[in-house]
Amino acid sequence: MRAAMLLGPERIEIREIPLPQPGPGELLLEVRAALTCGTDVKVFLRGGHPRMLKVPTPFGHEMAGTVAQTGAGVKGFAPGDAVVVANSASCGHCQACLSQRENLCQKLEYLNGAFAEYVRVPASFVARSTHLIPAGLSYEKAAMTEPLACVLHGIEVCDLERGAFEGAAEVVVYGAGPIGLLFVATLSRLGHRVILADPNPPRLTAGEMLGAADCVRVERDGNQRDSVLARTLDGRGAHLAVDCTGSPKAWEDALMSVRAGGLVNLFGGCAPGSQVTLDTHRVHYSELTVKGVYHHRPANIKDALILLAQQDFDLRILLSGERPIEEVEDALRSMARREALKFVIRNR
Q1: 83: helix, coil or strand?
Q2: Which is it for the CA torsion 289, 199, 234, 165, positive or negative?
Q3: What Cα–Cα distance (Å) separates residue 143 from each residue in 140, 201, 256, 271?
Q4: Could you report the per-residue pLDDT of 1-50, keeping only the tens digit for each?
Q5: Among 267, 262, 257, 213, residue whose Cα is nearest residue 239
């Protein structure tokens, strides 16, 4: 079968590799749609990821497809079933898992290889991270389950419904990439007022189409909090700021964009070793809450599939086009140049 292999920084090679066979408890997934994402771009440029993979390795992690084969003992799935497979599986037994913080599982496993014709799904993923696709949900939309689940986790930890922001909150989202736009679509659907900040006008337009109440064009070098604050309803800042850029400068702007008692969700992962300047006086005397947020939980995957199946939750604007496996590298470079949001990688 054909598979895109990540070999190092900016090195992808399309190889013919043996077709894997499912062992006991495993599935062989025929990939019908795999999506590129911002994490893929970062991993491609950096040549790896400290948690998710080590090169050389099959690449890609947002996937949906059909069950091609089942291994011995598999229950609940049969050849021909349309399924989505999450890119991680928790152990279910450690303290983090028992506390419903499975994203922090000490034995969290990751699954890569979506940019291929087939993927062998390990037994732990079959048991805890594989789900039937609801009727009528397309493969490409189902493949958005993982990034949307990350966003749903990012929203749930902000406790917008039960916390200090009970009712409609005012939210600033920094970054109009796919994750930032998913935050916009989901938060606005929940009734919150969202301000989107990004340097790219076409992406701001996409944000408006997904429900942003206001959009601010900012520069990439940071120090943009004044223009963002001016767009809040009373000029005192938002209840919540979410960084979806992974830029230390944007982290600093997010920390300065909320009002007293506000919450800052540092969702975008910066490069290892990055440092930010923190105004300790403001954090202390304004009682700011600052949270790092990572990944998703199994419950988020299930909720994401339910939400994606809603016909009025239309995310097609995030899909910039389709590419064959052989053009994965071109697709990622196009995203790095901010010419596209996400591509669907197809086998046929």
Answers
A1: strand
A2: negative
A3: 5, 26, 35, 26
A4: 999 999 999 999 999 999 999 999 999 999 999 999 999 999 999 988 87
A5: 262
